[in-house]
């Protein structure tokens, strides 16, 4: 089979397009013939060998997310059968041979049905973004229906799913994006209000949009830039959940003290097994119910994985998910 393989850590050009043997599923494992694979920022950090959560043994095929058709099941697997349309969310799987490939083998618990209404391309955008969105809202922020949720940087792969899940759960959602296209996308998926975070003073609109209450929950995608400002628009007893950060920040703790606010970090790698499993099943149910419609921002062929890794680091004004199409 054709796959991406890296034999050393480094820049994007360590990703090589090669032929590999087809992996075999063991007990409680599934082999999926992939049509598409998702590309996540964390995979670029893993490739560089600098990621605190995971440094794989080499050689290594990257990729945790994908979608395709079940090709073969191992002993003990009864929930899935060959021919099933599925998505793969294998970040915390015990075995994962990598989704940047024509075939992947992983734990059966990481493979779930993909509704006919969701394309394979969309299915490849579910794994890490979907699990992150679910964990952020329900395990960390513990949102409640009727609360005001501000998604700060909502037009990327995670943010779009956060908006959809929060709206479906009954939250009033304010989203921000950095371009007109991103703002229109947020309106299309159901955000109650949309702000342009490229415009000066955009956060000054939140008091008026919330009748002076502020946001009960802020989901923050770039904490090193925005965390202190988040505290200023947060409601009393509010929660800010940090999804992403690319540096350090000088922070005024009194802002959190004045509102008795919580600042919560999140990383899927830390999820207890029970929360990982509940997130996967929760996302699968949301797909089946038509709540989630993943958005594709850029599609490249599998052999262009180097370009995908370069683009995901340098992209600005993200609109949806980067995926690799697989023949």
UniProtKB/TrEMBL annotation:
NADP recorded as keyword: yes
Highest taxon of source: Bacteria
Domain named Enoyl reductase (ER): residues: 10-324
Cellular-component GO terms for this entry: cytosol
CDD domains: zeta_crystallin (cd08253)
UniProt cross-references to Pfam families, sorted A to Z: ADH_N, ADH_zinc_N
Signal peptide: none
An example molecular function term from Gene Ontology annotations: quinone reductase (NADPH) activity
Coiled-coil portions: none
Keyword entries, A-Z: NADP
Protein name (database record): NADPH:quinone reductase
Species: Alicyclobacillus mengziensis
